[in-house]
Amino acid sequence: MTQAQRYKYPLHLPQSLKETAARMAQEDGVSLNQWIVAAVAQKIGAMQTADDFLKARAGNARRGSLTGLLDKAPDVPPAPEDAV
Fold first, then answer.
1. pLDDT(1) > 60
2. Fewer CB within a 10 Å sphere, N or C end of the chain?
3. Alpha-carbon distance 24 to 42, whole Å?
4. Where does the record place the region Disordered (predicted)?
5. Greatest distance between any 2 Cα atoms in the chain
């Protein structure tokens, strides 16, 4: 989507959430619409960053790989300091 392209989306917010968002937008000196757009963009960025990070950390790991490691662990009770 280019900067010129805009899409309308009917957003239904609970009244308390709308009031809080409106107050925060006013405190930031922007319109409620601008504030919501920024909040959605921030959430998308956070989700994409987390997804990229987790995929990088997983590397070549495959589902079930952990089971092999756990099978090699000794079957002993936890140390007293580790018990909850």
1. no
2. C
3. 15
4. 65-84
5. 64
pLDDT tens-digit series, residues 37-69: 999 999 999 999 999 999 898 888 887 888 888
Report d(CA 73, CA 53) in Å as an integer: 28
Assess if residue 3 is contained within a domain. no
User: Among 42, 44, 39, which Cα is nearest to 11's?
Assistant: 39
Question: How many Cα atoms occupy the beta-carbon half-sphere of 24 within 13 Å?
Answer: 12
- Domain containing 52 equals 15-73
DSSP 73: S
Q: How confident is the model at residue 83 (pLDDT cuts 50, 70, 90)?
A: confident
Count of structural domains, the chain? 1
pTM of the model: 0.64
Question: Which residues touch 13 (CB under 8 Å, ≥6 apart)?
Answer: 21
Quote the DSSP letter at residue 59.
T
